[in-house]
Amino acid sequence: MRSRQAQVGQAADELAAGKRPRMSGIARKEAIAGYFAISPWLLGFLIFQLAPILAAFYISSTEWRILSAPEFIGVRNFDKLLFKDDLFWQSIKVTVIYVIFRVPVSAVLSLALALLMNQQLAGRRLFRTIYYLPAVIPLVAVSMMWIWIFNPEYGVLNSFIRLFGIEGPQWIHSSRWALPALIIMSLWQVGTGIVIFLAGLQGIPAHLYEAATIDGANTWQRFLKVTLPMLSPVVLFALVMNVIGSFQIFTQAYIMTAGGPGNATLFLVLYIYRNAFEWFHMGYASALAWVLFVVVLVISLIMLRSSEHWVHYEGRIGGA
Amino acid sequence: MRVAAGHPPRTMRNTISLPSNRYQLLNWTTRTLIHLLALAGAAAFLVPFLWMISTSLKPMEKIFQYPPQWMPDPILWRNYIEALTVMPFGLYFRNSIYVTVLSVVGQILSSAVVAYGFARLRFPGRNILFIILLATMMLPWQVTMIPLFILYRSLDWINTYYPLIVPNFLGGSPFFIFLLRQFFLTLPLELDEAAKLDGCGPFRILWQILLPLAVPGLTTVAIFSFLWNWNEFLWPLIVLNDVDKWTIPLGLNGFRDQYGTDWNHLMAASFVASLPVIIIFFIFQGYFIQGIATTGAKG
């Protein structure tokens, strides 16, 4: 180990020579403190995220019924899920349909409500409270509530539909309507999206609207040429997080429909849960979990990549 | 109306946020229409709550009735007592409080220290590590649940609260770290410099100078942490087996398994399970909004 004096001497030499000094004693102390400060996260990341992801990949190559030792079977789990397991494809289909409908519809709905609340609205705070409240209630309680709302005979939804002389569907008791029912229910919890969009809208500088108005733009043109481009980074962020979250749907299906009727709401995470914790096929469940991981990763990356074409970043403003 | 030529400097942009006279062109009809739309939306959002509360106070025979009756008559307050005593909801409540409070403490402490490291201390690799942290926000955690279950099983932690609490002391959540880092970045660096000259070490600076100033940020973290831990269902479902270890969401699920169509009791129990988050939400609304606005965290 070098003496302190030598270090200082070397640093002085380097400074004199116009080079960037090596890390000084103070900087090194700060770096050590820095590593120490982030160590809880780094440890947590290694133990609870990175290692389990790699372990899941290993487990996916085994047949493991938890009580006996794991048995290496290579790619047979992936072979099974891709070519022999109809339920896997059913779960992919159901999950993808849920994501495809839920994400855009909730984005449009929350943007519409955010625009509404960005107007001169009396009692804006109260409206914001009402719209956001459903998003904070425990999902289990929300599910209980909506089982009863969807009750075909006595539920409030079909009672309402009956006012128009139509008999409503069987909702979560029908293999055709169960998935739409869960999508409708998810729209009740768009509060988070509303708040994100509202914050984004309020960050758009007023002078852009003023300039557009002077140039003769009407409300619709201002929305298309000012609001949407300025909001697009927020939209991208909200869409990506919503897609990731929607792929993880579990609680509603577990409680309200148990994946049914006729596997109509057998979402991927529910299918993983059943394989792992009801049937104890740890290997196969891990293979399914890896499919979830890869699908979410690929779709997120595609969305982020596509953003080059439609997301408008500040500093590259043209016109306006 | 005169518009200043050119754009305001970049730093000023975010400060101009209030729609001052942006919409003064709106006429009376449009404004009425906007209010009607907002009211209709609010009604649609409120109906499920009213339906839950109304059902929770009805006698059984009034529940299966068409057209539905909105105002319960008679009002049966004892539905609540019955719902909360047929199953040990008091115990579930205590369990939930125990798990939630310890988790919140763990998440606040660890997120604050980690956020401080990323915001204020310079060390090689800081940027790449921060990018990794941001990337983990996009990870569907279910991919880790099977190996973690196996890990905890080998530690004999299944059917204990450790798997629900311990990870929260190791880094908490990337959302909270991100939120607090943003918060620390807004505090002037001169505070640290001055304290350093007075001989303060980095962790005393955090503890004595920055944390007291970061109370609003810490409160936001505490509230979201409370909410997420209180509402968590899948992970407790996996690691807790014993009925008397159950948290509130598991208790509610168990209640339905046993008393499936006692809608009044089920709605009463659901309402009580939601009550703590509803109360917290009403008290700390501003923090919720602020937290979402800065991080886009899910509710």
UniProtKB/TrEMBL annotation, chain A:
Membrane topology: Multi-pass membrane protein
Residue stretches spanning the membrane: 32-59, 96-117, 129-149, 177-201, 222-247, 253-273, 285-304
Cited InterPro entries: ABC_transporter_permease, MetI-like, MetI-like_sf
Record GO cellular component, one term: plasma membrane
Biological process terms in GO annotation: transmembrane transport
Record carries keyword Cell membrane: yes
Keywords in alphabetical order: Cell membrane, Membrane, Transmembrane, Transmembrane helix, Transport
Localization per Swiss-Prot or TrEMBL: Cell membrane
A matching Pfam family: BPD_transp_1
Domain (ABC transmembrane type-1) ranges: 92-303
Coarse class of the protein's main subcellular location: membrane
Gene3D superfamilies: MetI-like
Domain of life from the UniProt record: Bacteria
PANTHER family: ABC TRANSPORTER PERMEASE PROTEIN (PTHR30193), ABC TRANSPORTER PERMEASE PROTEIN YESP-RELATED (PTHR30193:SF1)
Family the entry assigns: Belongs to the binding-protein-dependent transport system permease family.
Protein name from the UniProt record: Sugar ABC transporter permease
Organism per entry: Caldilineaceae bacterium SB0675_bin_29
